Every structure is written in structure tokens, then in C-alpha cells.
Amino acid sequence: MRKAKAKRARRPCPLRGVTAHGDPCGTLQFFRLEVILGRPVFCGFAASLWHAINRVRGITDESSMKKITKLLIGAAGGVAGAALMGEAYKLTAKLVEAKPAKGEDATEKVANSVATKFTGRKLRSPAKRTGGQIVHYAFGASMGMLYASLADAFPSATSGCGALFGLSLYAGAHGLAVPALGLAPNPLDNGAARECAELSSHIAFGLTNETLRRLLTR
User: Fold this and answer.
1) pLDDT tens-digit profile of 176-192?
2) What is the 3-state secondary structure (H, E, C) of the chain?
3) Half-sphere exposure of 172 toward its Cβ, with a 13 Å CA cutoff?
4) Ranges of residues in the chain whose predicted pLDDT is under 50
5) pTM listed for this prediction
6) So what's the pLDDT on residue 191?
7) What is the spatial distance between Cα 52 and Cα 48, in angstroms, rounded to a whole number?
8) 17 partner at 20 to 30 Å CA-CA among 1, 27, 31, 107?
9) How far apart are CA 43 and CA 36, in angstroms?
10) What residue segments make up the domains of the chain, in order of their start?
11) Residues 6 or more apart in contact with residue 59 via CB below 8 angstroms
12) Are the CB atoms for 181 and 189 separated by under 8 Å?
């Protein structure tokens, strides 16, 4: 009998996790995960980016490959930064004794609005939380890609090891865009303690982006 040919081992993905039931985590199996920082959708976004980076290697045009790789690295930094934002907020809020925010989170409002528009039904609490996380990480990934583009074109954008970008994001998104869209109250109405926590979380986002960018582009 001929020996069966050994299957070619697939390169393991270091960003993969496991589902709540112990099964391997695939790109589309991230909704029930209990992984890094207790955020269920982090591993799904990270695994997707890992697969995307691997696919980029097949591109023959070196110039295009470098550009796409930089964008994917930026997206990875954005996802990691988004994961750390919540922890930075909690830590700072505890130090300054900030009162917890009231009402529905802005990301959950966006997720609910999108779901209502396309399905005609509002999201229930568990699905709304998951939807809010997806919006949070998707926004983080897009801002990470923006940061990667700015850092490549304007090196000064990396000032403060990414802290300047985090500060800009705090002012532009949290301070202006989100309140203007009616997704959150005006920062002036939140009090100094809560805004201090918000500021620290956005700076943590910028620092994480730049740290990963430097590590992965060496």
C-alpha cells in the first residue's frame, strides 16, 4: 500500500483564539469569543487582518504590496488601539473618580440605526452590544489606516509617538463629530473627570497605533 501523502501543514495564525465552546476561531466565528480584554469581536478582526496580510504577499507589484501592507498594519494598530481604549478609560475613570456615563453608547446607536435601516427591526440588548463592538473596532481599523497614510506622507503626524493623533481624534471625533450627529452629549456637559478619561483613552489609541507601526515596519 502506498503511504498517504502527508498534508502540507498550514501556517498557524498567532492571532487566532478559541470560541466560548473551545472550538478554533475562524474569521467568521468571532461573535461568541471570550478573548483579549474580554472583547468578543477583537479576535475576529485580528484574524481577518492576519489573513489579509498573508494574501498581500502574493501581489507581484512591489510598490502596491508595500502600500497595502502599510494600510493593513495601520488597521491592525487601530484594532489593537480600540481594544486598549476601554481599559485606559476604566483605569483613568477610577483614578479621577469619574461617574459612569448614562444612556446608550454611541457605537450601539450606530449599530442599531444601521440594523433598523436594512432589516426594519431594532437590535435587542445582546445583539446591540455585539453590534456596538463591531462598529467600535471597524472605526478603530479605519482610523488606524488613516494614521498609517498620514505617517507615511507626513512624518510629523507621528509626533509624541502617536499621542498627537490621539489628541486630534479626541477633538475631531469625540468633541465635534459625535455630538454633532446626536450620538453623544456635548463634552462640556460631561464634566472634567469623565472627559479626562475620554482623553486618556484616545491618547492610548494613538500611542498603540504608533507603537505597532514601528514594530511591524522594521
Assistant:
1) 999 998 888 888 888 89
2) CCCCCCCCCCCCCCCCCEECCCCECCCCCCCCECCHHHCCCHHHHHHHHHHHHHHHCCCCCHHHHHHHHHHHHHHHHHHHHHHHHHHHHHHHHHHHCCCCCCCCCHHHHHHHHHHHHHHCCCCCHHHHHHHHHHHHHHHHHHHHHHHHHHHHHCHHHHHHHHHHHHHHHHHHHHHHHHHHCCCCCCHHHCCHHHHHHHHHHHHHHHHHHHHHHHHHCC
3) 7
4) 1-40, 60
5) 0.71
6) 86
7) 6
8) 107
9) 8
10) 71-216
11) 65, 68
12) no
Length of the chain in terms of residues written? 218
- Which letter does DSSP use for residue 184 in this model? S
CA neighbor of 108 nearest in space, from 84, 129, 137: 129
d(CA 17, CA 39): 12
